[in-house]
Structures are given as structure tokens and as C-alpha cells.
């Protein structure tokens, strides 16, 4: 293994600039989402739900980071790009982790707030508007699809057992919607 300190310092500088741009853009997006979230009043938040696919994405990025870090360390004459690529992947992992910690589905006392991590806008669903909730087991999670009047698809989220039970108990108390297990 060969490690060139000078090239690594250049790579750190490039990765720092990339990280400032990436994390700055993520922070800006989270600020816009937080502003949009503050306009939605669904009561007190009972439980937060983080999408489990985020953990899969984080694991994949960190695995790629390890692979490219080993490749960069095994090169006899490394380049700046060989060191920058794993550092950029690590920056992306931090970016996804920060975004996932901010963008969570909220099960509230008056309704649901669905906040997708990457695509789409924040959706709020009042329990009174729900007509049907379809729950499908997938591996160790449950996929919940929400339908509102006039029989429109309103959104979905992935829940674990505890979160599913919390949602069902809140629905039983506040809504007359049909809960289907598929």
C-alpha cells in the first residue's frame, strides 16, 4: 500500500469544496421543507417513521466507499481523483443520513404527514379524509397505502410492527376508515 500525503491533501480540499456544496444544498432543501411543514397543523406528533430503504442506500454507499478506499490505497501512483472519489462517497453518505433524519413520516394526533426523502412534496392526510388503508407485509416491514375521498391514492410509507400498531390504534380512535391487510 502506498499513501501520498500531498495528493491526499489536494483530494481533501476538493472533497471539502464538494461537501460544502452538497451539504449546503441539502440544508437549503431541508429549510424549505421545514417551512412547508410548519404550515401544516396535524396536532401533536406521536411517532416518527424513517424509511427503511434509507438504511439500504446508506449501506450501499458505505460499501462503495470501502471498496474505492481500498482501491485508492492499493494504487502504486494514486491520483487526486482516486482519493476524492471515496471522500465524495462518504460526503454523500453523510448527506443522505442528514436528509433522512430530517425527512420523516409523522403519525400525528389529527393525521399523517408524509415527507419523502428525495422526490415529491410533503403531503398531509387528515384521518377524517381517509377511507381505506391497505397494509401489506414486506420482509420485516409493512407497506401502508393511504386512500382518501374521492377514492384517490394519497401516499404510502413503510412501518415496522410498533409503528403499524400505533397507526392502527390511532385510526381506530379517530377515523372510520377501512383497514385492509393484503
Question: What's this entry about, in short?
Answer:
The protein is of the alpha+beta class. The protein has 4 helices and 8 strands, in the order αβααββββββαβ. The longest helix is centred in the N-terminal third of the chain and has 34 residues, at 5-38.
Task: Explain the layout of strands and helices.
Blueprint: H1 5-38, E1 45-49, H2 52-74, H3 80-102, E2 105-108, E3 111-114, E4 123-126, E5 130-138, E6 141-148, E7 152-159, H4 161-174, E8 178-181
Parallel strand pairs: 5-8
Antiparallel strand pairs: 1-2, 2-3, 3-4, 5-6, 6-7
Task: Please characterize this protein's 3D structure.
The chain has 182 residues and is of the alpha+beta class. The chain has helices at residues 5-38, 52-74, 80-102, 161-174, and strands at residues 45-49, 105-108, 111-114, 123-126, 130-138, 141-148, 152-159, 178-181. The strands form 2 sheets. The chain has a 4-stranded antiparallel β-sheet, with helices on one face. Strand 3 (111-114) and strand 4 (123-126) form a beta hairpin. The radius of gyration is 21 Å and the shape is elongated.
